[in-house]
Amino acid sequence: MGHMHPHTHSHTPLKGRNLFISIVLNIIITVSQVVGGIISGSLALLSDALHNFTDVVSLVISYVANRLTGKKASTNRTFGYKRAEIIAAFVNSVTLIVIAILLIIEAVKRFFHPQTIQSDLVIWLSILGIVANGFSVLLLKKDAKRNINMKSAYLHLLTDMLASIAVLIGGLLMKFYKIYWIDSVLTFSIAVYLIFVGFDLLLTSTKMLMLFTPDHIDIKDLIREVHKVPNVNKLHHIHVWWLNDDELHLEAHLDFKEDVTLTRFNEILEEIETILKAKFGINHVNIQPEYNKEDPKDFIVQD
Q1: Distance (Å, rounded) from C-alpha 198 to C-alpha 176?
Q2: pLDDT by residue (tens digit) across 127-148?
Q3: Would you give the DSSP letter of residue 72?
Q4: How far, in Å, CA of 168 to CA of 125, rounded?
């Protein structure tokens, strides 16, 4: 059985530190907005506080998942905890959507029964939210580009910052124009946006958890490339999946035209690994060699 291990670099200490700072900032924001929302009577501020609370939970989940990912594999956990961050992203995306639905229900109720709101408190607390979440977003932006768990945390914080901007605008409109129904409209808008970003993340994390073939991989194109290698007869029984954001795996059976030696197989395997890495980004290849073996030769075999 041939295989190749990826050479990846760990960013755990940096990501862990940035996540911890973001957790502390969000706890401060949440407590401030809950108190301020109750005193001022602002549903938008309370909804932002509720979203911030889910951020604290999601960031803690992301932090724990990030720490677990760095743990070594063992005999009873041969992959270690490398998929913990995908689970964290899945949980975070679900909480985004659930919270958004609850906010929409409350916003509709409040729209038909608007209440007078202490706009000054709303304005100052929304500014606090913008500054703190904006700083957190900058901390996580780089890591979010290469890690689905960090992306889920980043999206939570980004939507929080946008929500705080919306609440600030609403606070100014209420202060100077007495337009109190804007509080419900802003809450509704924030919630719809949360569903939009949450669904995309939910779809991505679900595909990874289900071991679906990555969207950028065309199995037929992959097969054509492998079949160009000399002595190769047919690549079959193929599985391609993400283990985590860093490791893209391929597992397959490879039928040969002749009974090659192990030395020759190693040479062919190295050539295939190079092709798969360069053209498809696959960095962990596991191939079972075969010659005149009686087994299904379909590209995809349902066990």
Answers
A1: 34
A2: 998 998 899 899 888 888 877 8
A3: P
A4: 8
